[in-house]
Structures are given as structure tokens and as C-alpha cells.
Amino acid sequence: MRGGAVAVVGGSIAGSAFAGAAARLGAERVVVLERSPGRLEDRGLGICTHNDRFAELVDAGHLAPDTRRHRLTVRSWVTRAPAGRGDGDGGTRGRGRLLWAQPFPFHSHHWAVLWQALRESAPAAVEYRLGSTVTAVGDEGGASEAGGNEGGGNESGASAGAWIEEADGTRTPYDLVIGADGYRSVVRAAVCPQAVPEYAGYVCWRGSFDSALLAELPGGAGVWPEEECITVCYRGGQVVIYRIPGLTPGTTQVNWVFYAPTPDWLRLDGPTAVAAGALSDQQLDGMREFAERQLPSYWAGVIALTPRERTLLQPVYDLATPHRTAGRLLIGGDAATVVRPHNTSGAVKALQDAHAFEQAGRRLGGGSWSPLLAAYDRERTAAGLELVNLGRTLGRAQVTGAPDWSVMDEASMAAWWREQLTGSGGFGGHALRRTG
């Protein structure tokens, strides 16, 4: 058995999944260091999992069969009608003109509900430390250190262990350090310092709110069936809107992602975001006015219903690392690959990273951590690059190089979609690799 102590930097979905995997592989102690001082239930963003990917993750033991989720069956692509056709909605009750009703076999999730399910299933060996900010990590064998040399790539090398340093200067040794600390990863800076997120040239505004508020719109919630995901297309962007489970069982929330041009006021000094509640009145009003100009009236109304404290801005980034390990350091989730949300694969990607790590350990049996890291690196580096490339393709096709929606119909939409996925099985995530 490998034994020893493992540190996981970052306690969200990827971190929780890796922590469980490390414990099941025999680590005597797993410490999850999460910089947020409170619990993470307030992260109300929506995420989706393809039905097949969800079933695979349940079968592999990473998700419980009764994990709360909302069923989606169809993705309706709509757009405003050309000028001169009524109010510009081109359809009934402000929904817009239907371009394509695409079969959409997905489940939607509330981020916090999915995270809580992973947290509650953590083995007893896993210890969570909230309010712990990791400022540096390194490898005792000298393979890598944050701010130091680029180090040993995916060498299986002879490092004796790794360490983390916290904000108070305390340095603690570990047998393995796993970076699941997102797109601004401290661990990635040690493993792969040359890899930094690249701005895609546009942003996504995001928001969520209780579905009961839909009653305030003309036509109420009845305009929008429960199992329908909406994609509203306009020149230069799109809005994706769907329901997710609420924090309280039996309730639902509206979740939306609004891809849009970079606001004039946004200054990008490296990877950044504007947190929920931090937008000014002027910034929020500008986004809502833009929605009124670009979207059919019902969907513009959905955006306007969202409270300030539930609205945020995320610039869109890409990142593919050339390797994921150095000595006794490893990265996964968004620390290793930042994939545009168009792929609908973020949560699946994180869980599959942890699955690949665990499966590599089971194939290799006992012994040291190093061979396991090398096997994980070989498998997931290539898979991550493929997902990033697909995200770029989808971003060009749907946002920066989108077609003239006014001339699109069902047949042309279906052909356009097939062209985006040519040579890739990664929309919604790749099929899970299973090993005996």
C-alpha cells in the first residue's frame, strides 16, 4: 500500500473527488486545503452532465445514483426575428424564432448540491481545512517549485516527497500534493509554470435565481417547459438558459450563461473574474440593456429578473498543460485544463481526472506514488488537450465566427452542429475509460 499523507489544494468538486480517490488508494491521511473560510453551498452556478457520462460515474462509484439533478431532454435554439417582423420576437409569447429542437440527453445540477454529495461520501481518512490559503508548493527532490525552474515534467523521478506553504509561512511535508485549485492554480505554477490561461476574446455573464420568480414575466413559467434547455443566438454571442435543482429538495432555480463581447470597462490583468454581488449599477444596467437589444423579450426578461447578488462576470479562457505532474506534484480539474463552457463537460472532466488517477493506482497495485503519477499524466494530458481544442472549435462556431442566424433552419443547423463535432467524441465529455 502507498500510505503516507496527501495534500489536496482546493476543496471544490475536483478536490473532493481526488481526495476520495487518494484515500481509497491507501493514503493514511488526506488533507484538503480550501481557501474559502466558509462552506461552499453558496456557489449557485449550474452545470450539466450527459446522461451516459452520469451513468458511468455512478457505475464507477464516484456519484450516488440518487444524486439530485434536473432532467433535460431538448435544446431549443432560437433567435430574434429580422427587423420588421412584429416586436422582433418572431414567435409566440416572446420566445423568438425556433431554429432547431435538438435532442439533449443531459442532467443539470446545482454546483453546491453536487459538491455536497461528493463531500458527504468522502472516506474517513479525508480531513477538510477551510480558510487555508496555500501560497507555494514544491518537491523535495527539486523537480519543481512555484516560482522556480520548470522541473521534471512527467518524470517518475526519485523525489522523496513534496511540501506546501501556507499564508502564515508554515511549511508542511507530504508524500503527494494534488492541485485542484482552479484556473489560477498555485500548484500548476510549480508543475508547469509556462502554462497560463489564454483569453478567448469574449466573456460570459452568469446568473441564477429561484424559478418561482418566472411568474413575474408575461406568460409566467408556462412559456418555458421544465425539460427544455434554451440557447438564444444573436450576432456576436448566445445565451444558454436551463433549470437546475434548488438547494431545497423539490425546488428549482433558473441558471443562465450569457456569452457576450468584452465590456469596455473590463481590464484584464491576468486571469480574473467579477464575483457575484460585485458588479456596479452601471455595469449591471449595461448588461441588461444589451440583453434587451439582442434577445427575444421573454429571455431578456429572464436575465432582468436576476438579482445583483446572483449575477457575476467570467472572462472565457483556454488552458492546456503539456504535462500534469512533476516529482510528487499533480494537477487536475481546471488547474490542468480550462475548457470553454460550450463543451458542457466541466464537472465530468474533473471527475474523470480523479477516476483516471484512481484507476492507474488500481492497475499498478501497491508501491510508490511515482508510477501512478506517470500513468495518470500519459492518459489525461492528451484527453485534456482534446477537450480544450473542441471548446475552441465550438467557441468559434457559436460566438466569434457564428453563422448568419437569420438564414438558418433545422436542416442547416443540424449540418452545422455535425461539422463542429467531426473527429471528436468530447461534447459532454469523453466516454469513461474503464479498466479491469
How are the SSEs ordered, and which strands pair?
Layout: E1 5-9, H1 13-24, E2 29-34, E3 46-50, H2 51-59, E4 70-79, E5 97-110, H3 111-120, E6 126-130, E7 134-139, E8 162-166, E9 171-174, E10 176-179, H4 186-191, E11 198-210, E12 228-234, E13 237-245, E14 252-261, H5 281-294, H6 297-305, E15 311-320, E16 325-326, E17 329-331, E18 337-338, H7 346-364, H8 370-400, H9 410-421
Parallel strand pairs: 1-2, 1-10, 2-6, 4-12, 10-17
Antiparallel strand pairs: 3-5, 4-5, 7-8, 8-9, 11-14, 11-15, 12-13, 13-14, 15-18, 16-17
Helix pairs in contact: 1-7, 5-6, 7-8
InterPro entries: DHP_3-monooxygenase (IPR053212), DhpH_subs-bd (IPR054707), FAD/NAD-bd_sf (IPR036188)
Domain 2,6-dihydroxypyridine 3-monooxygenase substrate binding: 199-262
Organism: Kitasatospora aureofaciens
